[in-house]
Each structure stands twice: as C-alpha cells, then as structure tokens.
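Annex B.
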Amino acid sequence: MAKSKSFFIILILGSLAALAPFSIDMYLPGFKSIAADLNTDVPSVSLSLATFFIGISAGQLLYGPLLDKFGRKKPLYFGLVLYIISCLSCVFVTSIDQLIALRFIQAIGCCAATVAAIAMVRDLFTVEESPKVFASLMLVIAVSPMLAPTAGGYLITVLGWKSVFVFLGVMAILMILACMFWLKESYKPDPTYSLKPKPILNNFYTVIEEPNFYTYALISAFTFSGLFAYVSSSPVVFMDIYKVTETGYGWIFALLSVFFIGFSQVNSYILKWFSSKKIIVWALSLQCIFSGLFLLAAANNLLNLYSTVAFIALFLACLGFINPNASALALAPFQKNAGSASALMGALQMGLGALASAAISMFAANVVWPMPAVMFIAAVIAVLCLTIGSNQIKNRNQ
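Multidrug effflux MFS transporter: predicted structure tokens.
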C-alpha cells in the first residue's frame, strides 16, 4: 500500500476510533455546569459517564457479528446516524435521567466507529504492520485528550455545556462523509454468517478460547481500566481538590496526553529492536512500580498538584507502550473473525472501564487515593494475566 494512501486511511480510521474518547473527554469540564443546570450534583452527572462506558461495552458485542456479516461500512453508517440523533437530543434534556439515558444510546452508536476502525486495521494491514499501524492510530486517538477537554472547556465557558453535543454531532456527520467518499469497503459481506444467538455465541467462543486473544486482550483491558480511573476521577481531583479552573483542567489533560501519544510513537521505533512481547513485559513491570509509588504517596498525604500529574504521566507513558502491542497480538490469530475479535476486545476494555469508573464514584470526593488504588490493582492483575497467559500460549504452540 502506498505511503500517502496508507497515511490517509490511518487518519480516517484514527478519527473514527477517536470519536469515543472525544465523547468521553469533551464534556468533562462541564460537570459542574451540568449539575447546576439540571438541579443535581456532580456524582449524579458522573453516572452519565459510567452509563456511556456500559453502552459502548455492550454495543461492541452487537456490532462485531454485524461487521462480519454485512461488511464494515453499513453497520458503521447505522451507528454514526444513531450517534448523531442522540447527540442532538442531548441539547433538549431537562433532567439528569434523560442525559444518562441519551448517553447510553450515544455510546451504542459510537462504538460502531471503534469496532469498525480496529477491524479494518486487521483487514487492510498485515500482522507485521499492525503494531505500527495501531501506534499511528493511537497518535490520532490520543490527540483527542489534548484537544477535547481544552476545546470543551472553552465551548462551555462561551456557549454552555450543550454546545459540546452539537459539536460532537457535526463531527460525526463529517466522519460519515469521509467514509463515503474516501474509505473503501475492506471486507466482503458473508451472507452465510448467521445472526442467530447460538452461532454468534459459538463464534465468540472460538475467539475467546484462543490463548493469544484472551491473554493480550485482558492485559489491554485491565491497563485501560487504569486510564478510565484517571479520566473519571480527574474532574474531582483537579477541579475540586486542587482548585484548577475549567480551562486549566483542559490544559492539564492535554499535557498528560502528550505522554500517552509520545510513548506510543516511541514504541513504533523500538519495535525495530525489540519484540512486542518483550516491550509489554518491561512496560507492565514499570507501570506496577509507578502506580504502587503513586498509591503509597496518596495514602500518606504526600501529593500535590505537580506530583499527581507526574505519577499519572508515568502511568500513561507505560500504557503507550502496552496498548498497541497488546492489541496487535490479541488480533493476530484472526482474519475471518476479526470483527468479532475486535468487538470482544473493545467490550472488555469498556466493561472494565465502567467498573473502574463505578468503583471511583463509591469513594469520598475529597481524596486522591482511589485513583492510584484502581491503577495499581489494574496493573497487578495485568501482570498476572501475562504470567498465566504466556504459559497457556506456550502449551498451545507445543
């Protein structure tokens, strides 16, 4: 594939995959405004984030079979249209319950873009190219935490929090146009693929029983749950505890994203000398150490704004190495079932992200330690998954 064409395809796929993080990050600075406008409190508003995670997790299981039966583009268009309708409906909400329900529907639409983008990487690029492509995809995806909260903060300040959902709806419309005119169908529809429950479950089971998949998909999912712990608790930690302004919060979010972006790109270069498996081992080990020190400092009240930002940055830097390699290794055994495999991997990520977000909301809103606690637990479990899964992969290969 020509480099210029490959770059353009990665840009479109990255934009599709970035729709979910934009939908998560852009309205975070508006939590206080939403609470005031809808006569509720910030913890209740945070439930709209948790339901988004639940919706995007469940929805990916729906789109996986649809992508394998009808090709990639038709289910993608359906999801984007549903997303646009729910975004514009958010402008007219009058209660927090309505917003929570619409965010769930928004997530169902949004996840079509995420699953399709990941599946199309597997369709269009070889197994050897995939880690670098995922890293490039991450470059586009990771721009969203840099731009979304900052842009959201300014939009909310000038036009109010509802303007965020108008912006997201327009963004999805542009994505539909880009896919229609510049992205070809990458997978031939399979009319023999059954959408009955039993064949779908059997197909998912075929994916799940592959040791390569469950090992690296779980590693990716658990480390990502640490990211969601940071995202869901960051408005309280930065704006309530450290008294950062809405726009200041956006700039901190952007700064932290640089570490995620930068190290995912460093990963592309060091793949010339080290295997994906070796990179994951080292990155996971360091992530455990950094998150453990973060938790220890938080438990002893040794943190301030700057040290908190530094620890989060180190965690995200490790994630920049882990995620592209784990994603590529999880999907490597699949070609025919790439849609179902990517859906399961995405569902695991978002499902554990929802649990992490819910766990954070259960604790007091005036302490920092729940964030590093979830990060540390997630990193430790990911190490256990790697240890156990590596033995399973070795046994399968033998």
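DSSP finds 14 helices and no strands in the chain. The radius of gyration is 20 Å. Further annotation is deferred to the next reporting cycle.
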